[in-house]
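Below sits our specimen:

——
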Amino acid sequence: MKKIIAGVLAVMMMATAFAGCGEQTTSGGATGDVAGGESKTPSGAELFGDEDNISLKVWGPDKSVELLKKQCDAFTKLYPEKTITIEVVAQGENEAATQLLNDATTAADVFGIPSDQINRLVRAKVIQEVAFADEVKANNSETIVQDATKDGVLYAYPETADNGYYLVYDNTVIKEGDEKKLETVLEDCKAAGKKFIMSAGDGFYACMFIFTAGLKTDGIEDDGITQKFTDYDEDEVVATMQAFSKLFHDYSTTFQSSEVDKIPSGFSTGVCGAGIDGSWNVVADQTALEDKYAAAKLPTITVNGEEKQIISMFGYKFIGVNAASKFPRASQILANYLTGEECQLQRAEELGWCPSNTAAAESDTVKNNVAISAIREQAENSVPMGDIVQQFFSPVGNLGNQLFSDKTDPSDTEYMKKLIKETLQNVKDV
């Protein structure tokens, strides 16, 4: 695949500027009517080598499927000399790696994944090296590129810079300024008879209960599967866990641990006043709240009289290419196209996703999006998701479940010490 880079790079840079919308996902001689006008981009049939009668499968999260279909249709119209059929299938990004590892030969050629899944795919040798690495490096920040780089090799195309979560709330429920503290957010929700919703039993979110205390991940051992942690102050971690647990118990009629999709539906029905939601639900939350929509970075929590900024997990989303694809060149070209500036801008406009592409990220669409601003601000208070192994999530999610359990006494220091020790041990027991 490296052999095609030099010959195709210039043409692909032109091609990525013509993302657009269409109706079909099959090309075979049609003219290139893209984004409302005739495409002047060269067909670039030579980019595909001898690949023709190309049939590709693309996996993306359900909320992006309709837009992905339009983008794939626009892609096929750029190459009328080639017969290209693209099937777009809804597939959760967290499950894409598992499905690929189960049977790469039946998996998608091109797929979306979060940054923490890349290590698994590289170890199993089921993901292709990026063919357009120089272009990717030129158009994305070094931090994002490094998140998908293993042993000096880039393995995935950056798609978004927003794989994290933030505080979303009804501005008629949370008083101005109260969004800054978890205590006042909960109090305002209680006063209004509304729920505060977060997925406290999911390790993706429950990590904040230990990260806020200064316990952080420190990369991965040389075996590629064992999590490393920084040194930490056990008393500080325990005190922080107790602070979260006490709030959950003090506001037991207000606090609700549920999957994040309950947040936009809760706003729609008037049940929810605030929640900790992810970038993928921005449009759903905005639609539900309309002019009552508000967003901010995660609040602080008071621990032993000190306000601590809540620390989250943050990463990026990528598009990868299946190493078992029967059409490796076409798959690489499509992946590069789907992560180009115009396609990323379309996702920002229609889905509220924050682009990884540096030019797209400077657009007014992105700068004026309050959700993206909140997510970016929270990213400054986070632990890199790319440094977290799969084994991390279940034990940490269990820790979260224990903190709000009716059986848990928040004042039981010895129990909290036992809980954190067992959690970290379970993370390391692969």
